[in-house]
Amino acid sequence: MGDSEAGWQQVRRKGKGSKEEQKKPRGKGITYPNTSFFVSNLPSECSSKELREAFQEFGEVVDAYVAMKKDKSGSYFGFVRFPPLENVKEMERRLNRVVIGNLKVSVNLAKFDKDGSMKVYQYKQPTFVPHSGMKGMEQQWVNDKQQTWANNFTSNGRSFKDVILISRIQTTKKEIHLNSFRPQALAVWGNSVVIGRTKDFQSLCCLGEWVLKINGYRGLRYLGGLYVMIQFKDQLHANKLISETNTWEDWFSKLYVWEGKSIPYERIAWLKVYGVPPMLWDPIVINQLGGKMGKLLLKSEASLQDQNLSQDCLAVLVSDGEFIHEPITIRWEGKAFICWLVEDTRAWAPDFVNDVGPVPESSSGKDNPNVN
Question: How does residue 115 score in pLDDT terms, banded at 50, 70 and 90?
Fold first, then answer.
C-alpha cells in the first residue's frame, strides 16, 4: 500500500519517521471516493491478505488493513475498503455474516480512517428520468433519496477513537431513556458475583454439576452465548475461585469478578439446514454451511445411515439478535445447489437453569447445603 493512495497513509511503527512527519496535523473532513468498513473480532493470526480474501466474494476490495494493536477488550480489528456503494446498509448486513477462522466478525461503516482522520462520504446520485405523468414528482424523489443516502452513510458508524476505547455505540430507530433509573443488581449482589465464559458448548451444558463442588457457591445464572454468572456467599469465596486457576481453566476461557460492567453480546442460534443434495449429505459439507453463520458449537451428525435427508440441525454462536434465514449456494463439479439455513426460534437454555434450583436474590441467608 503506497503513500500515493488517496487518503490512506502507510502506518509506521512508533519511533520511525522524521519529527516533521510526526508533527503533521491529521486532516479533518477529507473526502474519500470509496466506502470503508471497520471490522472487529478478528482472529489473532489474521493478516491483511486474509482479511482481503475473506471479503472479496462481496465485491472488489480496494484495500484491507489489520491493526497492529488490540482494542481494550483484547480483540483484533482492521478496515476493509470497497468502491462506492449504493446500498451501504445491505452490504453491512451481508458482511456481518463473514466468519474468519472460528470467529464471526463484526462489521460497521467506518466514520474515521485507520490514521484517525475523519471520513466524509460523497456518492454520485443516479440519473433519474421520470416517465409520463410523473412531472412534479422528480424533485420530491431526489429529496427523498438524498435523505436516505444521508441516513445510510452517517448512522451506525464507529470512530477510530471508539474502537480504541471500546465504547461500543450502537444506534437504533427506537430508544428509551433511563434518566432516573437506579439499577439494583450491583447493590444486591455486591462483589460476590463472578462472570465466566465457558470454553465450549459441552462445558456450558455440564456446568451445573461442576459448580456444586465449589466452596461458597450460591447460584448460577445464564447470560446468553457462552457467558454465565456465578454467585458466591461473599467476595472472599469469589476471589478464591479466581485465584485457583487450575480449578477452572479447563472449563472457562475467562473468569473475573463482576464490577457492574456490561459484557459482549452473544447468543446461541439453533439452525435447521434444508436443501442439501443427497450426494453431498455429509457432516463436512453441512458444517461448512453452518460456519458461514457463526462459530460452530454443535456440529452436524449427518450420516449415510440417516433416513431423513430433508434437514439437519446445528448450533452456532452469533453476536447479533437478527433472525437467521439465509440461502447459501454450494458449488460442486460445475453445478450450483441452493441450501437454506433457518433459525429455530424456540427458547433454549442450559439444563442447569432448571436443575440447580432458584437463585437467591441476595448474598444474605443460609449457605448452600451442597457445599462446605
Answer: low
Look up the pTM and report it.
Answer: 0.56
* Domain ranges across the chain: 27-165, 185-264, 267-344
Query: Would the CATH topology of 27-165 be identical to that of 185-264?
Result: yes
One-letter amino acid at 243 equals: S
Residue 212's identity, in one-letter code, is L
What is the grid cell recorded at 82? 470497497
CB-neighbour burial class of residue 48 (10 A; exposed 0-12, middle 13-18, buried 19+): middle
* Summary mean pLDDT of the chain: 77
Between CA 111 and CA 158 the distance in angstroms is: 5
What local confidence, expressed as pLDDT, does residue 119 receive? Answer: 53
For 318, the grid coordinates are 452469533
In this predicted structure, what is the pLDDT of residue 170?
52
pLDDT in tens, 126-142: 444 444 444 444 444 44
- In terms of residues, how long is the chain? 372
List, for residues 319-369, the tens digit of each pLDDT value. 888 999 999 999 999 899 999 999 999 989 999 987 544 454 444 444 444
Distance CA 31, CA 28 (A): 9
Report CA-CA distances (Å) from 307 to 53, 146, 166, 270: 38, 55, 49, 21
Share of the chain above pLDDT 90, in %: 42
DSSP, collapsed to helix, strand or coil, labels residue 337 as strand
CB-based contact 193:185 (threshold 8 Å): no
Q: How far apart are CA 55 and CA 267, in angstroms?
A: 24
Taking the CB of residue 190, how many other CB atoms lie within 10 A of it? 16
Residues 27-165: name the CATH superfamily: RRM (RNA recognition motif) domain (3.30.70.330)
Q: Does domain 185-264 have CATH number 3.30.70.330?
A: yes
In this structure, is the dihedral angle defined by the CA atoms of residues 67, 47, 155 and 169, taken in order, positive or negative?
A: negative
Q: CA 314, CA 134: separation in Å to the nearest integer? A: 51
Set of cell numbers at residue 17? 519517521
Q: Which amino acid is at 252?
A: F
